[in-house]
Amino acid sequence: MNDQAEPPSPWLHRLSQFASIAAPTSVAAALLFYFGYVATYARYLYFGVDLTALDLSTTEVVLHGAEALYAPLAGLVVLALAVHLTVRGVRRALARKAWSRTLRVVAIVLVPSGAILFGRGVVGVLWPEVSQTEFPGVTPISLGFGLPLAAIGVWLSRAVRGRERRPGGTVVLACLTLIALLGVFWATNSFAAAYGRGIAETVGTRIAKERPAVVLDTEEPLHLNLPGLQERLLPSAEGHKFRYRYRGLHVLTEAGGKLLLVTAERNGRSGTIVVPYDGSARILFVPS
User: Fold this and answer.
1) pLDDT mean over 241-259
2) H-assigned helices in 23-99
3) Dihedral, 17, 21, 24, 29 alpha carbons, nearest 10
4) For 14-20, which contacts have Cβ atoms below 8 Å and span 24 or more sequence positions?
5) How many CB atoms within 10 Å of residue 147?
6) Beta pairing partners, 283
7) Among 2, 166, 202, 238, which is 20 to 30 Å from 217 by CA?
């Protein structure tokens, strides 16, 4: 006998109404800007540059946000699809009163697993050094999905025994949904920062091959002790104001009328040289 279409539950209807309100274009743009800022801040902080000094446009920051959100959004879509298929399968099994023993075992596993996961998230919050050294997103994912998993286990256990077919009241559902959303937001924030640092490390290791080299002439010595930076005194001649030539520099980026230069060799003393376009220096670009 064919399964009859099940009417949508009230909590699913309320959830869809919330989604239709909370996902306009302005919210999506704000999220792209925020996560783009986080990723870009971490990216340039690796080179010792504060993001406010770059004077990036909103479009540039949003583009960095799109890069940082590819992996989290893909994972979220896969997770949503898996949850949807799992819920449909569980509801059909409950309607047919099939797989009761298996569902009971799953419920027994979910409750302590969710509690342990939530406890792990609390540990990451109370001891920041744990969340700072862990794989990005472990603490927020644990904190955001621990209680919902335990609640699903409790609901499933009651549903198998025929006591309840809904995942709790409206207030409980709203709180669990909010906790999960906060966990996802926090995890995406951690991933965006890690993504920015990863891009910076990749750029740092390949900068000598992929970024143009620069010969920098200045009027005064820079007095910089950077690894890989070579200084040479130019011959004195009438009408020539530039006396010092520097090699070993490569272009990091250009922003706000300033050129940011770094050396290919990096250590704890490495930094970024900021050269404004004001005639105080002569710049020669050389192919890598």
Assistant:
1) 88
2) 25-45, 58-96
3) -110
4) 14/170, 14/173, 15/173, 15/177
5) 19
6) 216
7) 202
